[in-house]
């Protein structure tokens, strides 16, 4: 089983669709023994999305407090990643999608997010999608999206203490915290 | 070279298109030294598919017995994964595609498959595609397919003794059998 | 940081879009301490492509000599991968795209490329995309492209001394050079 995420640490969990990345990330937060906060970035625009959100919420059970943060992730992390709390952000891909729909300055907002992560006093586990390993998409919007997603994943990975790729529910560590000496 | 798959063991070989996953899986079965059975799930609906199937069959050579099982994989595994036989299932992605086209209850049929794998008396090596690491597909059917594929890969991976991701023909082990003590 | 690529060695750096694969590859070449040659395979057909090429060139800085080789990569490698030079080829995916647009015999041209790599007297680091881990593309051309890309990656990986997959800027070694004894 996953080892607990220590206080103030940042973990990035990457994976494809239905790779088991959310469940793995939830396991990290649960193992921390801290109060669990679920920062949800999903916005339900249609029934398919509503069904996915409800299914996710049901599978988590009642031990989580859920906070909705479709746009201002930095503020949510500042408010929730306090001592005695462990936070999951699920997921950066929907947050990016929301920001693009709002025509936001992605690089700027990503910078605010990184600053909040560095400030966090409790562990934060961020879930994000790997979307760049298929064929080049036909339309320019999809290409722009995967470029933004790739850059965002790189920036978060660069400051994260741990980065794990999940494939078929199994973790593959790409970066591990340095051993305490 | 790959080490042989022991009797009764279940191995899942994952990879993208043209990643070399089938060849790697065939190497595992060949290294077992047992009689080789190729369980083919492909159904040829058009010339492109027929050409792929023929090319695969030619590349295997004559040392394999081929069994077609486009739909009832559990029965094929029960019949073929016997002592002295090593079985490859190539591949779960086409089997899933066939099941969806037949409007089958995927979760139920996946459950039957898992039960057959647990019952198997000879080694079974299953090949499956990683399809969830590209951009979100435009159409709902493609999204449903990759959700089913992701869930199926997770379920098989959970019971498998070994799970290997193949990238550019090179294996990356995600799960390894426990050492005999 | 990445260890330097030794003389005459061939390194394949794989990754999805915006995975950080080019930057990682450039780090390998820079660490060699040799004169750096950037073999660019991009052809600018439109403004989006021109902007990408210019951004890449700016991010490299002035320490690189750039050679354009959209089609005849084997000749460029023969000319540039000499003693005291370290070469990056960025990238095989654009080269493959150019070759397909020119209706070339891909298998033959890939063979010429492999022969040039084996002849190289200075280190060559090749960047290539992983494009086969998304859903099956709708159109036959995209399917043919990813088949060609997968086969090309396998062929180069088979002769490479080192193969590294880059995810979110982080390297995952799939193949490492044998230790000198």
Automatic annotation (TrEMBL), chains A, B, C:
EC numbers, comma separated: 2.7.1.156, 2.7.7.62
Pathway linked to the protein: Cofactor biosynthesis; adenosylcobalamin biosynthesis; adenosylcobalamin from cob(II)yrinate a,c-diamide: step 5/7; Cofactor biosynthesis; adenosylcobalamin biosynthesis; adenosylcobalamin from cob(II)yrinate a,c-diamide: step 6/7
One of the GO biological process terms: cobalamin biosynthetic process
Record has Ligase as a keyword: no
CDD domains with a match to the protein in the record: CobU (cd00544)
One Pfam family recorded for the sequence: CobU
Alphabetic keyword roster: ATP-binding, Cobalamin biosynthesis, GTP-binding, Kinase, Nucleotide-binding, Transferase
Record's catalysed reaction(s): adenosylcob(III)inamide phosphate + GTP + H(+) = adenosylcob(III)inamide-GDP + diphosphate; adenosylcob(III)inamide + GTP = adenosylcob(III)inamide phosphate + GDP + H(+); adenosylcob(III)inamide + ATP = adenosylcob(III)inamide phosphate + ADP + H(+)
Annotated binding of GTP, by residue: 15-22, 40-42, 57-60, 90
GO molecular-function term, one example from the UniProt record: adenosylcobinamide kinase activity
Keyword Acetylation part of the UniProt annotation: no
Family classification: Belongs to the CobU/CobP family.
Known role: Catalyzes ATP-dependent phosphorylation of adenosylcobinamide and addition of GMP to adenosylcobinamide phosphate.
PANTHER family assigned: BIFUNCTIONAL ADENOSYLCOBALAMIN BIOSYNTHESIS PROTEIN COBU (PTHR34848:SF1), PTHR34848
Name of this protein: Bifunctional adenosylcobalamin biosynthesis protein
Organism field: Hansschlegelia plantiphila
């Amino acid at each position: 089983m996953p080892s607990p995420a220590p206080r103030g640490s940042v973990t990035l969990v990457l994976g494809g669709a239905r790779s088991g990345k959310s469940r793995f990330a939830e396991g990290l937060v649960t193992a921390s023994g801290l109060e669990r906060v679920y920062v949800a970035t999903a916005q339900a625009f249609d029934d398919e999305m509503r069904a996915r959100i409800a299914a996710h919420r049901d599978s988590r059970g009642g031990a989580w407090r859920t906070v909705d943060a479709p746009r201002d992730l930095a503020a949510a992390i500042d408010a929730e990643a306090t001592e005695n709390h462990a936070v999951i952000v699920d997921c950066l891909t929907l947050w990016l999608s929301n920001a693009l729909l709002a025509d936001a300055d992605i690089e700027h907002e990503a910078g605010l997010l990184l600053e909040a992560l560095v400030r966090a006093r409790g562990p934060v586990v961020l879930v994000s999608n790997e979307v760049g390993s298929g064929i080049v998409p036909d339309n320019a919007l999809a290409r722009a999206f995967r470029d933004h997603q790739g850059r965002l994943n790189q920036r978060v990975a660069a400051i994260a203490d741990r980065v794990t790729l999940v494939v078929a529910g199994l973790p593959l560590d790409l970066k591990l915290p340095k051993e305490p000496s």
